[in-house]
Design a protein that fits this description.
The protein has about 180 residues and is an all-alpha fold. It folds into two domains: about 30 residues; about 140 residues, Ferritin, core subunit, four-helix bundle (Ferritin). Helices cover about 70% and strands about 0% of the residues. The chain contains six helices and no strands. α2 runs antiparallel to α5 and α3 runs antiparallel to α6. The longest helix has 28 residues.
């Protein structure tokens, strides 16, 4: 049998769950500043989408003796970036926001730049710089959220881990000489 304290808490949860039910995942105990979280999620979405486009371009335009392997790596990163963008957009919708996919706004909101790069080394470097920017941006966002929004924090932590892996792979390509000014 349940104790009276637990029963009262269950009753309170049931009452709170019915209040403002149309707000979906954002309950009365959501403690993050929702407007800021949604803005930062949209900025992260823009950063991912600009990265997807940059990686895609590099995948198709990579030239040189090492280009098949590097181009394949670019495609993997592009596809993973698209999955990250999808997860970020889904999280915004869960929180009652709207993801901004407008091409006019992407470059303006993205933390990373869209730089084409003329050589394989430049392409790898530009993608590595963008990954490093995303890593710092996600770390800052995770720190900002703290324990106020565990769902968004966990999503960002998983994306952060992937960005760190991407940065490591790109740095290894440069270090191993897979793009000697090619």
């Amino acid at each position: 049998m349940k104790t009276p304290e637990i029963q009262a808490d269950v009753y309170g949860m049931r009452v709170r769950a019915r209040q403002n039910a149309a707000q979906g995942a954002v309950t009365s105990r959501y403690s993050a500043h929702l407007t800021t979280v949604l803005k930062r999620l949209n900025d992260a979405l823009a950063t991912e989408l600009v990265g997807v486009l940059r990686y895609r371009r590099h995948h198709f335009t990579a030239r040189g003796v090492f280009s098949p392997a590097v181009a394949a790596e670019f495609l993997v990163h592009s596809n993973e970036g698209l999955a990250h963008a999808d997860h970020l957009a889904a999280r915004m919708v869960q929180l009652g926001g709207e993801p901004d996919f407008s091409p006019d706004n992407l470059v303006r909101r993205s933390q990373a730049e869209y730089v084409e790069g003329a050589t394989l080394a430049e392409m790898i470097t530009e993608n590595l710089v963008a990954e490093r920017i995303a890593i710092d941006s996600h770390r800052d966002f995770i720190q900002y959220i703290g324990d106020q929004d565990p769902g968004t924090r966990r999503l960002l932590e998983s994306i952060l881990a992937a960005e760190e892996a991407h940065a490591g792979a790109l740095a290894a390509l440069l270090k191993d000489g897979c793009a000697p000014g090619a």
